[in-house]
Every structure is written in C-alpha cells, then in structure tokens.
C-alpha cells in the first residue's frame, strides 16, 4: 500500500503489512515515509515531467551553467522511457528529444548572441566506454565502435579520448544523431523487462555562446544520463552473458552509491570517483560545478517493494548533496590576441613619438655593425671605468649581451679544444710507443726462440760431426807414426766410412750458407730460422718418403694423361677424315647415277662399308682410351689431394714441434747464454794446436808431438785406442788432418758469426 500527499505531491508513504507466515511476533517496520521535491504518479504525462524536471535545468544551461539529469531505479521501472521516450506515439517523447527541441527554440529566439551546439553520446558497457556517434561505424556492432578512455590533466579535469563531438546546427540534426546512437545501444530481454538496456548511456549537449564584439565566451554542457537498471540475480535467475552484464551494472551502481555517501558526509576528504568509469565521467555532475537533478523510478509491486524502498533511500542521500554551480565564462583567445596586438602597436607608436625614432622589430645591418665595433672597443680598453653605452634600447642591450656571451663561449671552447687535442696527441703518441715496444719485444722473443732452436739442432749436427771425427781418429791411432801426407792417404784408403762422416760435417757447415736460399724458396712467409728448421724437419719426417713416392707416381700419371690426350686427338681426327671420305664417296655415286641412270644408286658399295667399319673400330678405340683417361684423371686428383693432406699434416706437426721447443726454451734458459764470453760458451770451437785442453780422464785427446826439428808430423795417444770413448762434456781439438781441420774451422767461424750477429 502506498500513498502520496495530494496537496504538495512531495510526501510518499509505503506501508508493508506483516505477513502471516512470519508469525505473530514480528518486529519488522511497516511504514516508510520519504519526502521529495515532486512525486509523479503512474499516469503522469511526459510533457509534465519535462516542464517540472528538465526545463529549469535547460534554462540554466542556456544561461551558462552546467546541468545533469539522470534516472535511477531498478530494471523495468521506466528509466529509459522517461529519458529517451517511447517509439509508438509522438506524445511519448522523453526528456532528451524535448530538451533538444526546447534548446533550439530558445536559440532561434535569442538573436543577441552567437551560439554553437555540439552533441556526444557515450555508452558504458561492462566498464568499457564506446562512442555511439562515430561516423565511421554507423549502425555497426558494439565491438567495432571505437573505445573511449579517460584521461586526466594536472588540474583534475576529465577528458574523454576517442569520444567524438558532432556539431548540430538545428533540431533535426540533433535528433538524427540521437536516433543513430539509440540503434547502437545494447539491449537484451530479461525476466524483468523484454527490452532491458544493459549499459549506462550519457547524452551530452555542449553549448557555447558569445555576444558580438565581446571577448567573453560562455561554455556549458548538459548531461542526460540513462543508467542501467539494478537487479537481484537471485530473483531474476539470469545466467551467461546476462549474468556478466548484471555483475558490472550492480558493481558500477554500488560505486555510484559510495560516491553519493562520501559526498553526503561533511568531513570526508577523499571521494572515490576513480572506482568506476561512470563516476569518473560524472565527477562534476555529482559533486562539482553543476545543477544536478535525479529522477528515481519505482515499480510499486509487492515483489519489488524492497527495491523500491532502496531506491527511495538512495534518492534521499542524493538530495543531501549540495553543488556550487558557477557561471562558465572565459575569454576568447582569438580576440585576446587581436587586442594584445593592437595594444602593442599603440605602445610602439607612443615610444616612437617620445624618442623620435621609428623602431622596427629587428635591428638593421648598420646598427649591428656599429654595435660590434662598440663591443670590440669596449673589450680592448683596459680602463675599468669605461662603460658600454648603447642607449635605452632593449634590442641593442640584448644583442650586446648575446654577442659577448658568444665570444666568451668561443674562447672557452677553443681552450678546451686545445687541451683536449694536446691530451689526445699525448695519449696517441703513448699508445703508439707502447704498441711499437710490444711489437719489438715480441719480435725479439721470437728471434731468441728461433736462435735457441737452431742452436739445439746444430748441436745435434755437431754431435754427428764429432762422431765422424772420432771414428776418423780411432782409425788413425791404430797405425804407426808416419808422415802427415802418407797418413792422410792411408786413412782415406783404409776407412771409407770416416770419409762419409767427414762429408756430413762439410754438409753441416755449408748449410749455414743455404739460409738465404731457403728464405727465398718459402716465399718469405717464415723467418730465417724457422725456414731452416722446417727444411731439416721435413727431411727427417716419416712422411717424406711418401711425398716423394706420390710425386713420382703423379708425374707418371700426368705423362700418361698427356699421351692419352694426344692419342684421343689423333683418333678424333682420323674419324673425321673417314667421315669426309664417306661423304665424298656418296657425292661420287650420286654424280655417277646422274650421268648413268641405268646404274642403281642403292646398290651395295664395299668401299663405303669398309670405311664405316674403320669408323666403328676407331670409335671403340676412342671410347676405351677416353675411359682410361677418366680413370687416370680421378687417380691424379686423388694423388693431389693425398699430397696436399700429407703436406698439411707435416706442417701441423712442425708447428706443434716448434711450439714445444719454444716453450721448453722459455722455461729452461740454456747455459750457453749465461756467459758473455764466446770462448766460455763454445770452448770446443776455439781450441788450437798451440792451446792444450783438459777434459775428463775418460776423454781421448789427440795432441801433436813437436820434434827437435820443429816438424809436426806425428800423433801420439795418451790412452789405448780400444778404450777410447767420448762423453757429452768432452771438447773437440784439431786432428792434424788438413781437410778435416779446414772444415771444422769453417764451421766454427760460421757459428761464431751467427752468435755475434744475434747476441
């Protein structure tokens, strides 16, 4: 049961009788009283609602104030019908079309001002904003519409990105935009309403007015809000997409209620506008610079009585909020620019009248040259009391300051550049010197390693020469004391092996003179010592015989391939010659047939048949030799590949050996470099017949015996020949043999020369 005060139409009383099912003891409240500014019954007409609610707000908007009208209530209670209207009758038009009609009528009547009108239509569906008036997506799906996002400036003003403002010059254009937006709204059928709007929609009218000749513009906006209806999911029993939509709708309405409660409290410092998109958009409407009117729609029915009471309570909370609406006036920036330009020109004219000079915006070229000269004189003058007088002209003063600033900066830059350049040159020279020093150190280390390796190799060759000399002396010690010439001849006849060993010593000495030749052979890629070591290493390598055999076999295969190629050319020429004979024979037979028609042309020709037989034989021979040539070619390629592999393997083995020798020499420094005196390093190379040597007791020595006559013509041995042996520490002396002595002395001089050059 509900009742409305008929006199004031502002008091509403709802009576809820106790139900018998609740029992005799029931303390529930039965009567609910609410007071509003105006209460409309179910039979109220749309024009009455507009005149009472929307018309005062529209008049405030035309005067320059912001306005908002929004409808709140449960689903199916008539919010959309009140805001937008019905589509069956013209008299069912809602607040939005009637407001548009009223505003444009007033604009046409008022000719004292210039008006500009724009409209926008925003839909908030599942907390996402969409522009319903986008011209690129007319009557399209909701997913295709551009999404609207909220942006906030430092002054906490809300700006909606991607929300279009469509200009409407008359009522017809505005209504067409309204109908376009309504066709894009999300509507669904629910148990409470056959055409329930599932989103919040905000239709905004932007009006700007200005009096002719005035720089003041008034800007105002009117929000017409149709909120989605709240519903109890437990009562409606919806599911799926409808359930998701109901969740978002109830959540946004819950945030709206939180904002309303916070605004109603006097000492509340924080208002939760940012909880939802709808409260962010309606920030000014709810608690700011706006004239706001709320329409609460009720569904007076027994099953909806709880929702109706909740709506009334919410409306009373909204009524407690007080907004301070301010006239929105601002100065037109274009007119302001015009006024400022006019004022500047007037000031210039006054200044020119006082000074007697007509000033331009920029200094002339003559004035600039004059100022440069004054600045130069001022800077060169050493008098501290001297002043730079350019007159009471700010342009000249600014130019002088800027010019002096540039001069100071240029001098600083030059000093900085010079210092940087000098430091860079020093760093560069230091880096170059360090790099050169490092290169020289590396080269010196490499040469030392090469010399040490060559010395070790020459030690081995020297040992071979010692063995050869030892065998030679052992053979001579067994004979009697003879003349030097006779003994030499006798040793050459009786010991041919000693001669071969002596020849090896000669080869070793002559190898010193072959170093430049080896350097030219290797193309200069290796150093001199490395080339000599590689030649010796290659001779002693296990694969040297294989390389020689492969080279010999490769030479034979090349000769065979050359011979086969010549034979193939001969056979090819012979086949071509036989073919030419057959062609000539055929021409002769054809000529004979023409001259003697009685003879048949197709008769068997034994000469031609014999020529064809020869061609077949030559072809077989050609094919046989060609197959053999292919086999030889494959064998040549294989031998070349094998030779290349063996050469690469030998080179890698040499590199490994060379690296090992270098490491050993770096770890253990040879004792021969510990003394700077060459005589102490190689004493065996510096012995002579006039300087006796001492060695171990087991060392065999051959010392020339001087007779009274001064002739050195015999040798004596201090130990028996059969017990002689040479230890690693023994020294080598001259043997008395002229050929052997000459070879050893040459070897000693060559080694001494190398040591002096490298030391």
Automatic annotation (TrEMBL):
Domain of life: Eukaryota
Region span, Disordered: 692-735
Principal cellular location given in the protein's record: cytoplasm
PROSITE patterns, A to Z: KINESIN_MOTOR_1 (PS00411), KINESIN_MOTOR_2 (PS50067)
Gene Ontology annotations for the cellular component aspect, listed alphabetically: microtubule
A Pfam family the protein falls into: KIF9
BP terms from Gene Ontology: microtubule-based movement
Keyword Nucleotide-binding assigned: yes
Residues in Kinesin motor domain copies: 1-321
Assigned keywords, A-Z: ATP-binding, Coiled coil, Cytoplasm, Cytoskeleton, Microtubule, Motor protein, Nucleotide-binding
Biased composition (Polar residues): 692-702, 710-735
Binding of ATP, residues: 73-80
Keyword ATP-binding included in the entry's annotation: yes
Example of a GO MF term: microtubule binding
Matching InterPro entries: KIF6/9_C (IPR056524), Kinesin-like_fam (IPR027640), Kinesin_motor_CS (IPR019821), Kinesin_motor_dom (IPR001752), Kinesin_motor_dom_sf (IPR036961), P-loop_NTPase (IPR027417)
Cell compartments where the protein resides: Cytoplasm, Cytoskeleton
Family: Belongs to the TRAFAC class myosin-kinesin ATPase superfamily. Kinesin family.
Protein name: Kinesin-like protein
Organism: Chloroceryle aenea (American pygmy kingfisher)
High-level lineage: Eukaryota, Metazoa, Chordata, Craniata, Vertebrata
